[in-house]
Amino acid sequence: MTSYDLVVIGGGINGCGIARDAAGRGLSVALFEMRDLASGTSSASTKLIHGGLRYLEYYKFRLVRESLLEREVLWKIAPHIIWPLRFVLPYQAGLRPMWLIRLGLFLYDHIGGRKLLRATRTLDLTRSSAGKPLRPGMHYGFEYSDCWVDDSRLVVLTALSAAEHGARIATQARVVAAERRHGSWLLTVRHADGSEEAVGARMLVNAAGPWVADVLKTVGPVTSAAGIRLVQGSHIIVPRLFDHSRAYIFQNADNRIVFAIPYQRDFTLIGTTDRDWHDEPGKVAASAEEIAYLCAAASEYFLHAITPADVVATYSGVRPLYDDGASKAQEATRDYVLHLDEAEDAPLLSVFGGKITTYRRLAETALDRLGAYLPAEAQARRGWTGTAPLPGGDFAHDGYQHQVAALRRAYGFLPSALAQRLVRAYGTRASGLLGDSRSLADLGKHYGAGLYEKEVAYLMQHEWAKTTEDIIWRRTKLGLVLSSDEIAQLNQSVSLRKTASI
Ligand code: FAD
Description:
Blueprint (H helix, E strand, L loop, with lengths): L1 E8 L3 H12 L4 E4 L15 E2 L11 H17 L4 E9 L7 H13 L10 E4 L15 E10 L1 H14 L3 E3 L2 E9 L2 E8 L4 E11 L5 H8 L8 E12 L7 E5 L5 E7 L3 E5 L3 E2 L11 H12 L13 E10 L13 E6 L6 E6 L5 H11 L6 H5 L19 H11 L5 H11 L3 H5 L11 E3 L2 E2 H10 L5 H8 L8 H18 L1
Bound molecules: flavin-adenine dinucleotide.
Flavin-adenine dinucleotide binds next to helix 1, strand 8 and strand 16.
């Protein structure tokens, strides 16, 4: 039986963040994910690295400040998958008053250590290009900064970094039992082929997101754990609604806010909803009611009315929120709470809540909580994740165009759109993926939309992709543009490769 210093249950952003931090501090680490990396909530977010302007209304100053500070830290360690985004907030009479918005944005600009991101400014929507796609009557607005992230790639690159620091990352590996034995943990992991593996651990982290309470049941009796509140959030994707690069944040009459964000070049992403979820988290899907709500909310602002017939895709996720007893789902705290159970000297740390934005700080705090069990050298390395680039992110925060140009110089045959996508996904590692290719033909079979056999092989070899879905929805977002025939062809190749590797 293999034993590790630390075993993490759950390959979402929080589990991968903790695994990376711990492995980089010299601990032996294993992470088990029952499906694919990021297949839970971490691929269903609005994809923002943001302070969360609206959380200021709930006086969540600590959370907002920590999140704001993380924006530039994360942008610098992963400039290929994270970049600044300007948000336009049109002022609507009858909703939040102008002074309140100004005050919120003043705080947003000043409490978060902003150095690189541009400051807030006011907009005359009758003159600005941001006013053009909006309905008449909206005269003023504000424009402020946050960041965009490719959420599922953030998870995979964090896992890859953990692996490069020695962690074992196992997908399609479900932890089905865990018990304390003589001051450590004995786990049973069930693999995709039905085989079971016994694994030992000195420390156990439960980062199962919406399944955190289910895992606690598997683990047997634990001292009073915190409560979890599952809140569903859905998004719709429609053909591009405007031709500039800014996003919109719209206030709704129900006091909620809805974002409309440029997405994957040809689309606009609109979300999200907030409603309590009482079923198995894996069953979550956008309902007709949510789709109608999002269409109506966006149509309040855009000249072009949006109807469910415009929707080309949807996705939905379940927020695993710490239950603070708030009455409305939208008011439940987005802050994280870590619960440590130290029975029999075998610690179990469970993660409740949190945002993608705060995953790195959450990981540091998790290891602080386990500090008594860590060797001094591991404690001394606290903070290393704040400056070490994620795989492929070892270039300047504003160096994306330069990377694209360099890749095209080295691989003159690459069409511009493909070079851009590869740098966005793999950063400086795009050249490793392309290897010694000298023509498009060298990249192997073309499935469509610039997806070649070489990339598929790379994803299956180096990024734990095992199914077509892993490739087209989480490692890339090409599922949006590939036809069903192209997806069927890809499916065949993925199955063949899988069989060949068994
Ligand atoms: P998950 O990503 O759900 O990971 C948990 C993993 O554990 C899953 O992959 C699951 O398969 C695995 N697992 C469960 N049980 C087991 C087991 N027994 N064995 C092995 N594996 C197991 N945050 C932001 O910062 N910015 C945003 O813009 C944003 N927007 C959001 C919008 C929506 C609609 C939602 C729902 C959330 C949003 N969030 C956002 C919050 C953020 O997405 C989540 O807080 C975060 O992804 C949670 O990550 P996690 O790792 O805790 O959970």
